[in-house]
Amino acid sequence: MESMIARLWNGNLSPAKTCGNEKVEIQELRQLVARSGEKLEQALDGAQQKLLERFVCNTEEYLCLLAEQAFCDGFCIGSRLSAEAFGAKV
How many CB atoms lie under 10 A from the CB of residue 29? Predict the structure, then answer.
């Protein structure tokens, strides 16, 4: 069995790709956001649609960075918990 570190290094472990995808509430919210976005896009003229597109791109970038930071913070907390469990002083 391949170690978790080796799987992560080799790209066989991608927690960001599957983060919450199986949760019903996340799937429902994703669908709601998509439907709302489509309705909003249909209600806007060309200039407003471009503004909305920039807003969506900026929001997606922000959420990606936020998720990455949350993952890193969680990884650090998990590492500290593991170290403490083995008696190391952190």
Answer: 12
